[in-house]
């Protein structure tokens, strides 16, 4: 009897806990939002982009400066024919001479020979000429026939004392002179010539002002010959620009 009663008492109970239906889902905890972190991420992205832009702009900042196009001997100056303008990256550690300073630069002298292709910097120029030791400059007023046609700054010429000269320069570029007496110097360097024959560097309607850099021991003889109109210049082969 007891067994049957126990059996009957448990007949109304379920065999196990109730199971949820197939379509029901367990509830999930709401996702926690962090707006501060999102704002910080956006700020970092913006700062990185701004920094990159600043570096690009600084690297791309360029200035217009002076570039030497023809060799400038020591003691000579720049002019409109031996310089041009170029753009370079700005660098405060390099004392570039800006193109806007060209007129001021024309008043200065090259402290040493400046090769063609060099970008002008302030250290190349000064208010006075600093010729190499043992060198002097001599100014000549020459007529046609006493100098090579097409003579340019940087050329090396030989200077002769002549007893007389005939007009007209030779087609080969050397002076045509008669009565050549003696060689004064064989390695004079042309330091300055007029920009053109209509410039103020012409001494007269028939004279051409040329400046030579020579050994100091030759300067007196060259000046003496020039004062009497007894100088003829010959271009040394292989030295022209």
Instruction: Report the span from N to C terminus.
Output: 136 Å
Looking at the structure, what is the overall shape?
Answer: rod-shaped
In DSSP terms (H or I, runs of 4 or more residues), the helix count works out at 4
Question: What share of residues is helical?
Answer: 10-25%
Describe this structure in words.
By secondary structure, this protein is α+β, with helices and mostly antiparallel strands. Among the domains are: 62-126, Antifreeze-like/N-acetylneuraminic acid synthase C-terminal domain (Type Iii Antifreeze Protein Isoform Hplc 12), CATH 3.90.1210; 135-235, no CATH class. Helices cover 20% and strands 30% of the residues. The chain has helices at 2-9, 35-59, 102-105, 216-227; strands spanning 62-68, 83-89, 109-110, 125-126, 135-143, 156-169, 175-192, 207-215, 231-235. The strands form 3 sheets. It has a 5-stranded antiparallel beta sheet with strand order 5-8-7-6-9, covered by helices on one side. A two-stranded antiparallel sheet has the order 1-2. A hairpin with a 5-residue loop joins β6 and β7 (175-192). It is rod-shaped and about 120 Å long. The protein starts with a helix and ends in a 6-residue tail after the last strand. Residues 165-180 and 197-205 have low confidence and may be disordered.
SSE layout and pairing:
Elements: H1 2-9, H2 35-59, E1 62-68, E2 83-89, H3 102-105, E3 109-110, E4 125-126, E5 135-143, E6 156-169, E7 175-192, E8 207-215, H4 216-227, E9 231-235
Antiparallel strand pairs: 1-2, 3-4, 5-8, 6-7, 6-9, 7-8
